[in-house]
Write a structure and sequence with these properties.
250 residues, mainly alpha, Helix Hairpins, 2 domains, four-stranded mixed β-sheet, 79% helix, 5% strand, rod-shaped
Length: 250
């Protein structure tokens, strides 16, 4: 294989890895934003449950206060009834007592309703608080992992960029110019292997003579369909693999 071909194949591998790292680096903040958004929604739901529970408790206290007020009225009315001089006055006091009694029963019924409503609310708040504590710890752990991963990716990217610069210096300028032109026009993939007489990327069948010339490897050749730089890897013979295995065991 021509030195330029070996270099562009290696360059394509480096560019692919750089693209993968760039996607990961860009994806990590989005992932963190998503889990933080979910956390915020759970916090808001918990606050709503807390607010509902607090409102329930306030209304219960109000009902209890109303009962006390009505009981005080009943006590005063009973004292006043003793001083009633006519049947009309007595009936008026009795009417007021009945009204106060009804108000107390209404308040007591409402307290029972509120007690029934408060139990699931209290359970929901306690459950949500426990779950939120665990979720916050998980989010913080994921943020730490993301920060470490981003730092590692950025370090790897810096090393790959240095390697890329070294490769580019060795490539013939015209070949590199063609590589960049194709890479920009073909979504980052400028090099393709020819396998089974086809371009492995666009899958178009290569002309027999073109494929034969490619096998010789005497020039940098481009796919006639997608314009990517083509290279050919001859199949490894079984006896060659056996020889390699023998050497490695010696």
């Amino acid at each position: 294989m021509l030195p330029d071909l070996k270099l562009v194949v290696r360059l394509q591998d480096v560019d692919n890895r750089l693209a993968d790292l760039a996607r990961e680096i860009a994806a990590l903040p989005k992932h963190i934003a998503e889990i933080e958004k979910k956390l915020v929604s759970h916090e808001k739901r918990l606050e709503a449950d807390r607010a509902a529970l607090a409102a329930n408790q306030r209304e219960r206290k109000k009902c209890e206060g109303d009962i006390q007020v009505q009981e005080q009225k009943i006590s005063k009315l009973k004292d006043q009834m003793l001083q009633a001089k006519t049947n009309d006055q007595y009936r008026a006091f009795q009417h007021e007592l009945d009204y106060c009694g009804n108000e107390i029963r209404k308040a007591e019924d409402r307290i029972l309703e509120l007690m029934g409503e408060s139990e699931p609310l209290d359970t929901a708040v306690k459950t949500a608080e426990a779950a939120l504590k665990v979720e916050k710890a998980q989010v913080e752990a994921e943020k730490n992992v993301a920060r470490d991963r981003t730092a590692a990716d950025e370090k790897a990217s810096a090393e790959l960029r240095k390697e890329r610069e070294a490769i580019v210096k060795e490539i013939t300028p015209q070949v590199y110019s063609n590589y960049e032109r194709v890479r920009k026009g073909r979504k980052g993939i400028a090099v393709a292997e020819a396998v089974g007489g086809r371009c492995s990327v666009c899958q178009m069948l290569l002309r027999p003579q073109f494929f034969q010339d490619l096998k010789y490897g005497n020039a940098v050749m481009f796919c006639e369909s997608c314009q990517r730089i083509l290279y050919y890897n001859p199949p490894v013979k079984v006896e060659d693999l056996s020889d390699q295995a023998t050497v490695s065991h010696q």
